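tool_call: predict_structure(chain=1)
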Amino acid sequence: MQLSKLVTFHKVMGDATRIRILALLAKSPKNGQALAGILGLTPPTITHHLAKLRETGVVTEKRVKNTVYFQVNEKLLQQLSLGMMEIVTGKGELEMNQEKTGEHARILGNYLTKDGKLKTIPPQRKRRLIVLYHLAKEFEPGRKYPEKEINDIIKKYHEDFATIRREFIVNHMMYRENSIYELNPKELWAKIE
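tool_result:
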């Protein structure tokens, strides 16, 4: 887990109002007006706190007609919440090399749109691997994925799912047998030089 991401998450969560907002959203999606009413705060205050929570990705939004509803991204919240314990106990992988992570972030910034979609598949191997490592975070280790599900997940990022799926196999990031895919252990992945 990236140190900067973990630090940002804990800074954002260091506010009682944001924790209360997450607790309310964990029960059911709500709009900003409803949150303001329940918490007795002004809508601009709620908007400020929701913006901070959205920056970390732990809150997502969904528009229904003219109303925006907010909900908790439970999977990410759980990863970030457990991240500190995993790092402290030595079970987690911490990316502390700021130069390396900075370079990777810059490369990802060049190839990903603001909403996380892949603009183009990088032709240079190193950059392509950085993008593939990023996309592979979408898959759970130990889980088996049918080809259709792999395609659907990749399509969220780029329409050429066949090329990206093939790159996962060629770079030993995934194993395929009978059209069933599984994430390989990171030790087997092609190394980013």
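agent: The domain at 97-188 is CATH 1.10.10 (Arc Repressor Mutant, subunit A). Proceeding to next step.
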